[in-house]
Design a protein that fits this description.
The protein is 21% helix and 37% strand. The chain has one domain: mRNA Triphosphatase Cet1, Chain A. It is α+β, with helices and mostly antiparallel strands. An eight-stranded antiparallel β-barrel has the order 1-6-5-4-3-7-8-10, surrounded by four helices. The termini are far apart. It contains five helices and ten strands; from the N terminus they run E-H-E-E-H-E-E-E-H-E-E-E-E-H-H.
């Protein structure tokens, strides 16, 4: 993927609405969103260094920042299914992703031994600064697209987080939040702002940061 900021991403976090209400809001919105793909389960293991540099950059509001995660799509949160390493680079609301297939880890269990092998592969691939697994995030994602095909939307529900740094926590911590995200090309920004009535203001939201907070990393 080209290292260019060609896509805008804007998020809203809802704490007191249900999935059905938000889905209906999208369908009746003046952009006329419709389901785009089948709902699927998303798993992400986030990597950072011992000082949690990526997390600190996010919390400090650093304009140019990144997150590194291993992602796979499966209802099984304990087994890697065709995992992909994603390096997500953001500058304010703009972003792009670099993707690396990690096919050799397909069907690997999420355990300490395998995470060590994956970490070694990540650090060799990125020539990076001793990245280690920190947390795992698991949720269901619903996909929508506007009738003019210019804007894609996702609704993330049933979010769960668990700690992986130092040991693999046996349980997930649940969240009732629902995350709505719009993704669209830079040149459609003014168009979207003129057609976004009915949606609350943009929220700062990071599933990685949420996973750290839910598992008491900042206490």
């Amino acid at each position: 993927m080209s290292d260019k900021f060609t896509r805008l991403e804007k998020k809203w976090v809802f704490k007191n609405k249900d999935k059905e209400t938000l889905t209906q809001n999208l369908i009746s919105h003046n952009l006329y969103f419709r389901p785009h793909f089948q709902e699927r389960f998303v798993n992400s293991i986030y990597f950072d260094n011992l000082d949690l540099k990526f997390a600190e950059d996010n919390l400090a509001g650093v304009s140019n920042r990144k997150k590194i995660r291993l992602r796979w799509y499966s209802p099984n949160s304990n087994t890697l299914i065709n995992p992909t390493l994603e390096v997500k680079v953001k500058k304010n609301f703009q972003g792009f992703k670099k993707l690396f297939a990690f096919k050799e880890f397909n069907n690997f269990k999420v355990n300490e031994k395998n995470l060590k092998k994956i970490s070694e592969k990540i650090n060799n691939t990125l020539v990076s600064e001793n990245l280690i697994p920190i947390t795992q995030v698991f949720y269901k994602r619903n996909y929508f697209i506007s009738c003019d095909k210019r804007v894609r939307a996702t609704l993330d529900v049933d979010l769960k987080y668990r700690k992986i740094k130092n040991f693999i926590q046996s349980f997930f911590v649940r969240s009732n939040d629902i995350v709505l995200e719009f993704k669209y090309s830079n040149n459609f920004d003014s168009y979207l702002r003129n057609n976004i009535t009915g949606i609350t203001r943009v929220s700062r939201n990071s599933k990685y940061i949420n996973s750290l907070e839910k598992n008491n990393f900042f206490q």
